[in-house]
Design a protein that fits this description.
This protein is an alpha+beta fold and 314 residues long. The protein has two domains: 7-236, Cation efflux protein transmembrane domain (Alpha-lytic protease prodomain-like); 243-310, Alpha-Beta Plaits (2-Layer Sandwich), CATH 3.30.70.1350. 61% of the residues lie in helices and 14% in strands. The strands form two sheets. A three-stranded mixed beta sheet has the order 3-4-5. A two-stranded antiparallel ribbon has the order 1-2. Helix 9 (288-294) links the parallel strand 4 (273-282) and strand 5. Helix 3 (51-79) runs antiparallel to helix 4. The longest helix is centred in the middle third of the chain and has 30 residues, at 92-121. It is elongated and about 85 Å long. The two termini are 33 Å apart. Residues 152-171 have low confidence and may be disordered.
């Protein structure tokens, strides 16, 4: 068989991962804003004795690092998209970055909890007026960052040439940008807690509320991190796609020509894109291309391998 003949059946495994994503530029701006506010909150938290403000600053610091990981992941994904060492492109770099951010977030949650408990037994004087001003400024910064990252649900066009020759579009989610958005959202929540604690201390004399809110903030951060770990680890460990996707794929193929699927695996290989291996048993078998064409194009399955078994003589 001539090499020219085989070349027409070869294809790339980039799947749009070499394109600049909208979230990349927005994340760079948010990193700059968040890093600036982190320095202000940590320094004023130490200077004015507020654990809630210090915890919010440390929390923002963790998110600055996490957003940095997000940006690195964007750049690496683009630059290595055509690297043949990646079987299905660099889509999982997105999930790996999210997982790393989640682990970092969990470590900072432990640090926040430790420092807050320590303040219960070793309280310090709090300069409420100055701390409240900085906490409000932090909330404003977080709100602005949320607006900048808020459009993390968006649609993209993908040419799924391995499933259907026709160009189409479908909506999917950028997990990397979603992780960044959740980090900033958690920052906003801890800023609110810091303001609440400082007001309670200033007007009601409840100084213990400050370290208490530090603990509450640590719990919130831990919950965010555990949720992100579960989401990203399922992608990294090649969990099966959602049941609805499996059912739609099975129904599309088994709904014609008396076909039966004996083995079906669909897993995520990037934000909103999936790979599938399908074993079809039929007494009137068609070509693998025929079965690929039956798969609904809106499922995001961009790479499909089909095995066909003839059961007429069995």
């Amino acid at each position: 068989m001539h090499s020219k003949t085989t070349q027409q059946w070869q294809h790339e495994h980039v799947f749009g991962q070499d394109k600049v994503r909208p979230g990349e530029r927005r994340t760079l701006w948010v990193i700059f804003i968040t890093a600036t506010m982190m320095v202000i909150e940590i320094s004023t938290g130490l200077a004015y004795g507020s654990m809630a403000l210090l915890a919010d600053g440390l929390h923002m610091g963790s998110h600055t690092a996490a957003l940095g990981i997000t940006t690195i992941a964007y750049v690496y994904t683009r630059r290595c998209a055509t690297d043949s060492r990646f079987c299905f492109g660099t889509g999982k770099v997105n999930a790996f970055a999210g997982y790393t951010s989640a682990v970092l977030l969990a470590l900072f949650a432990l640090l926040m909890a430790w420092e807050s408990v320590n303040r219960f037994f070793n309280p310090v004087e709090i300069a409420f007026n100055q701390a409240i001003v900085v906490a409000v400024l932090g909330l404003i910064v977080n709100g602005a960052s949320m607006i900048m990252l808020g459009g993390h649900h968006h649609g993209h066009d993908h040419d799924h040439e391995h499933t259907n020759p026709h160009h189409h579009s479908h909506t999917h989610e950028d997990h990397n940008l979603r992780a960044a958005y959740l980090h900033v959202l958690a920052d906003a929540l801890t800023s609110l807690l810091a303001i609440f604690a400082l007001l309670a201390g200033k007007f009601l004399g409840l100084n213990w509320m400050d370290p208490a809110m530090g603990i509450v903030g640590a719990v919130l951060v831990a919950r965010w991190s555990l949720n992100l770990i579960r989401t990203t680890s399922s992608i990294l460990l090649d969990h099966q796609a959602p049941g609805s996707m499996l059912e739609k794929t099975r129904a599309a193929i088994e709904g014609v020509d008396n076909n039966r699927i004996s083995d079906l695996h669909i897993w995520s290989i990037g934000p909103g894109i999936y790979s599938a291996t399908i074993t079809v048993v039929s007494d009137a078998p068609g070509t693998p291309g025929h079965y690929k064409s039956l798969i609904p194009t809106d499922l995001g399955i961009v790479h499909t391998t089909v095995e066909v078994h003839d059961c007429r003589n069995e």
